[in-house]
TrEMBL record:
Origin superkingdom: Eukaryota
Name assigned to this protein: Maestro heat like repeat family member 1
Lineage: Eukaryota, Metazoa, Chordata, Craniata, Vertebrata
GO cellular component: cytoplasm
Alphabetical list of PANTHER family matching this protein: MAESTRO HEAT-LIKE REPEAT-CONTAINING PROTEIN FAMILY MEMBER 2B, MAESTRO-RELATED HEAT DOMAIN-CONTAINING
Any one Pfam family match given in the protein's UniProt record, by short name: HEAT_Maestro_2
Entries under InterPro entries matching the protein: HEAT_MROH2B-like, Maestro_heat-like_prot
Domain called MROH2B-like HEAT-repeats: residue spans: 1-166
Length: 166
């Protein structure tokens, strides 16, 4: 079942029309990723040369960070997105793995005990942008960074005009 769910569920992460299903989707994918990691590093890696059209690493990073910018929206979908990002670290880029394993739990801790009203949204946005900046510095690949810019622009077109994501 893992072999069927893993590729199919990943297809629904990036398109904005599936935002309402992201919390359970992120949780399921995180569980599947962790299970695949237990099977071995190779089992957990996405096969971009196969028949299934996976979202690009840049597309996953862009979408999950945008969702994480509102951690309490839709009953905690943003926190679930961060947890999925941590589980997918080796599929995003090899250079971010160690940093994300340490940094993402501290991002999640930052949100604990807070609510939509008590979170300093400007500070949270700053922390996420700092996380992205540090990640891109670790990746240190201008072509990779250019693709994330293209993904962000492409995804922005899919968000409704008055949405927080946009």
């Amino acid at each position: 079942m893992t072999q069927v769910l893993w590729p199919r569920l990943l297809e629904y992460v990036v398109p904005a029309q599936y935002t309402g299903t992201l919390k359970p989707l992120c949780r399921c994918l995180r569980e599947l990723a962790e299970k695949k990691q237990q099977e071995g590093e190779e089992a957990a890696c996405l096969d971009y040369s196969g028949q299934v059209k996976f979202p690009t690493p840049q597309g996953l990073l862009a979408r999950l960070l945008v969702v994480a910018s509102s951690p309490y929206e839709r009953e905690g979908t943003g926190c679930a997105a961060l947890q999925l990002l941590k589980a997918l670290h080796q599929n995003i880029h090899a250079a971010v793995g160690e940093m994300w394993v340490v940094k993402i739990p501290s991002l999640l801790q930052y949100t604990e005990g807070k609510t939509e009203n008590s979170l300093d949204h400007a500070q949270w946005e700053h922390v996420l942008l700092q996380f992205l900046r540090t990640s891109l510095e670790r990746i240190d690949d201008s072509a990779w960074s250019s693709r994330i810019c293209l993904e962000l622009r492409q995804q922005m077109a899919g968000y409704a005009s008055p949405s927080k994501e946009k």
